[in-house]
């Protein structure tokens, strides 16, 4: 299922490793339970620095590599490091707060000005992505009525209307929550 970049209402995707048929990989499902994106973690090594965002059919969309301490790079497609899309640098890493800056490659902006900023607390599955002063996307735990503690294994990603590619947002969320 392909989701257009400019949708008039916010889009909710539900993130979990427990979606049927994923075999432990991370999945992004729509409100109907259909897998929109899935993430393959390199299972050969626990400390692997590679994440691949796939579409519902298993085609690679974005491959993310850890470039250094707190730094990531995202490339279009699968294993090649040829078509760079974005760079991510960690600016703050504290016990209860992480902040990342995202620089899109090819955007007309100064090198020192990030295109997006990400702020949150990965342990609580809390992340907000900003473009300037606007919220682009946000994650939150799945609370239920009369529930004191919300499990961290399934949570919601809300992507707000705008011109941001949903696969880019999904790959940034994977870096924020699973790349630390």
UniProtKB/TrEMBL annotation:
One Pfam short name: LOR
Superkingdom, taxonomy of origin: Eukaryota
Family of the protein in this entry: Belongs to the LOR family.
Name the record gives this protein: Protein LURP-one-related 7
InterPro entries, per the entry: LOR, LOR_sf, Tubby-like_C
Species: Salix viminalis (Common osier)
